[in-house]
Design a protein that fits this description.
With 219 residues, this protein is of the alpha/beta class. Helix content is 34%, strand content 22%. The longest helix is centred in the last third of the chain and has 17 residues.
Length: 219
């Protein structure tokens, strides 16, 4: 390891809904931090999560990848939204005392929904959504646009990195239903981002999070 390598530590965290876990990756001179949540699948190593973490660290963020209590407990099915929010809020609150600078709240799929629902309460500076599930597959009328726009109504910038053929909502659908977003970044893939698109995700994430470090106009 050199003086320019990021340092990763793992922390066990207590929450009202069970033990959670934080994987904290610090760059040598952090200027802000990014809380990153996984989706409803039992994995914290999807292509987009890994690419987002690397890109954000490269931009100067300490990235805190948070494992929800249901995943730490070994379950394969995510808990209901209210319980996810409880675990997330407790974990972010537990680690924020040790971190400084602007806060980006981020997540993949179900984790993106959690980030949107809690961003205002956490006084975040920016929201980053990976593969936001705008609607269930085959049900374009069952929109979750209110969740996506909740941070916007609170004055927060929201960026979405979305697979071009995502059955949960394409970039074009998001653009049509969610005006007011700060950025929609199409990348190759569906709701599952392929390894070949990792570099595209990293570029999109780097572009999305930079405004949080240089100051966001109007905030």
């Amino acid at each position: 390891m050199t003086g320019t390598d990021p340092v990763t530590t793992v922390l066990d965290l207590d929450t009202p809904v069970g033990p959670g876990r934080a994987h904290v990756c610090r760059p040598p001179a952090p200027r802000g931090w990014l809380a990153l949540g996984h989706g409803a699948g039992p994995s914290i190593s999807t292509v987009d999560l890994v690419a987002a973490r690397g890109a954000a660290v490269g931009e100067g963020f300490t990235v805190v990848l948070l494992e929800q209590p249901w995943l730490v407990a070994g379950r394969r099915i995510a808990t209901r939204p209210a319980v996810l929010d409880q675990g997330w809020l407790a974990m972010v609150s537990a680690v924020r005392a040790e971190l400084a600078g602007p806060l980006v709240v981020a997540g993949r799929s179900a984790g993106a929904r959690v980030a949107c629902r809690t961003a205002t309460e956490l006084s975040a500076d920016l929201v980053l959504c990976l593969s936001f599930p705008l609607h269930p597959p085959g049900k374009p009328g069952s929109l979750r646009v209110d969740e996506l726009l909740e941070p916007v109504s609170g004055g927060l910038p929201v960026h979405v990195v979305q697979g071009e053929r995502d059955p949960f909502g394409t970039p074009e659908e998001i653009r049509a239903h969610a005006p007011g977003l700060s950025g929609i970044h199409p990348v190759p893939g569906t709701h599952t981002i392929p390894a070949a698109a990792a570099a595209a995700v990293a570029r999109a994430v780097a572009l999305a999070v930079r405004p949080a470090l240089r100051g966001i106009p109007g905030r």
